[in-house]
Specification:
Layout: E1 2-7, E2 10-15, E3 28-33, E4 36-39, E5 42-45, E6 50-56, E7 65-66, H1 69-77, E8 84-95, E9 98-102, E10 109-112, H2 118-122, E11 128-139, E12 144-153, E13 157-158, E14 164-170
Parallel strand pairs: 1-14, 2-5, 3-14, 7-8, 10-12
Antiparallel strand pairs: 1-2, 3-6, 4-5, 8-9, 8-11, 9-10, 11-12, 12-13
Length: 171
């Protein structure tokens, strides 16, 4: 339902909801136009945004920042949140369409947003897993830390719909 864009000014979520055609891949360079707003302390393009792929490039996410419980709780206290590439460990609790990650010692709960392979994620319910992906903001009055997961490990890997594209122009 969303993808991330990145340029020299930083990273931002483009949230399109159920209308997202899932036609943006990691490394696609895109032009995005639309209105931005703040959701969960993070600036993002909303459902009315338009995008156009213009080329592609190689993406190197670098090394994920390993989050402690205190790091996770700090997001709830922050005034603003910029998307960040992270790694966090917790016990997965699946309830319907919610994929929550209970992080030992943290007040805030990780929330894996819109996994593409929902059945594989559900199979990890109740297990302690390591999630690598992007923090994209908070929700539920700062109760949840939203995570666009690239991978999660428990002896095997699942991938979630999460793409990182470079932006060329904001309109």
């Amino acid at each position: 339902q969303s993808f991330l864009i990145n340029d020299e000014t930083g990273m931002m979520l483009v949230y399109l909801g159920y209308t997202f055609a899932k036609d943006v891949a990691v490394g696609d360079e895109v032009k995005v136009s639309g209105t931005t707003s703040v959701y969960g302390k993070a600036k993002q393009f909303g459902q009315g945004a338009k995008y156009e792929k213009v080329s592609s490039a190689t993406v190197d996410h670098g090394q994920a920042k390993e989050l402690t419980a205190a790091d996770c709780d700090a997001y709830a206290k922050a005034e603003t949140i910029a998307p960040e590439y992270v790694k966090v460990t917790g016990k997965l609790a699946v309830s319907g369409n919610y994929y929550n990650l209970n992080i030992e010692g943290a007040t805030i709960v990780g929330s894996i947003t819109y996994p593409a392979n929902a059945d594989e994620v559900k199979a990890l319910n109740g297990k302690t897993i390591e999630v690598t992906g992007f923090v994209t903001g908070t929700s539920g009055s700062d109760k949840y830390l939203n995570l666009l997961a690239l991978e999660a490990f428990l002896g095997h890997l699942f991938s979630c719909l999460s793409v990182l594209a470079r932006i060329l122009h904001f309109f």
